[in-house]
């Protein structure tokens, strides 16, 4: 484990990223939290999963940047408030590639005990692919890790609703924004974008549109490429900026 000034702890052996029984490499997770007991709890839960392995631990953002220079990882589970360098700044540097991993570096999921909108907004701006509360259950956290690893983005439901309400009030009117980007989308891609903005998963969209989940995933990929967006969170923000949906639509069947 870590002392207050000691180096980051790196995992070793099969649990640290060796092949699974099915021959596929597990999702390599780095834990960042200044509380040793919290890290131990996460390690116990995640290492119990056949498709996950905790490959290292750090007590703050500065240590995880050092660790990433020598330890490949797929996901960084990042505490928001840590000594020396907080999770937002560390996320910004990881996404920018200053950890040495470059564009193919790990994706970051922010964990925090504080359900505050300014933290969530800062995390999204920094490039985090996920924002969850620490009181989320193990199943929700493991599902978020798998979703982010597969290319999706995850935001705590309570936070999502308030963020969308904020965007609806504060973002500029759609009439003042260019529609050139939207014109690049097909009619079906526009439908998929609206459903993504309303918080539906790929499987839910597939049911709604009576198509396969693989088809929806293809549409989402094309939407992100055409609109030059990083992930689904940015797609939601874009849809609200353009007035495609309003906060009152969030979560409604339609």
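-> sequence recovered:
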């Amino acid at each position: 484990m870590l002392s207050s000034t000691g180096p980051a702890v790196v995992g070793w052996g099969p649990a640290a990223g060796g092949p699974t029984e099915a021959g596929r490499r597990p999702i390599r997770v780095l834990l960042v939290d200044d509380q040793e007991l919290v890290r131990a709890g996460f390690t116990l839960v995640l290492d119990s999963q056949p498709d996950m392995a905790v490959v290292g631990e750090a007590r703050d953002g500065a240590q995880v940047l050092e660790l990433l220079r020598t330890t490949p990882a797929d996901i960084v589970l990042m505490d928001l408030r840590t000594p020396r360098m907080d999770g937002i700044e560390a996320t910004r540097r990881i996404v920018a590639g200053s950890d040495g991993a470059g564009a193919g570096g790990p994706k970051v999921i922010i964990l925090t005990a504080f359900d505050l909108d300014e933290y969530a907004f800062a995390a999204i701006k920094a490039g985090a692919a996920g924002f969850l509360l620490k009181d989320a259950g193990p199943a929700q956290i493991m599902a978020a890790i798998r979703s982010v690893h597969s290319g999706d983005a995850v935001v705590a439901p309570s936070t999502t609703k308030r963020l969308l309400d904020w965007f609806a009030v504060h973002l500029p009117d759609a009439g003042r924004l260019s529609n050139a980007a939207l014109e690049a989308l097909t009619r079906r891609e526009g439908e998929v974008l609206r459903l993504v903005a309303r918080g539906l998963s790929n499987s839910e969209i597939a049911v709604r549109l009576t198509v396969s989940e693989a088809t929806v995933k293809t549409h989402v990929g094309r939407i992100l490429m055409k609109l030059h967006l990083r992930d689904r969170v940015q797609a939601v923000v874009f849809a609200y900026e353009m007035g495609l949906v309003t906060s009152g639509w969030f979560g409604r069947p339609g």
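Confidence is low (pLDDT under 50) at residues 1-17, 172-177, 247-254.
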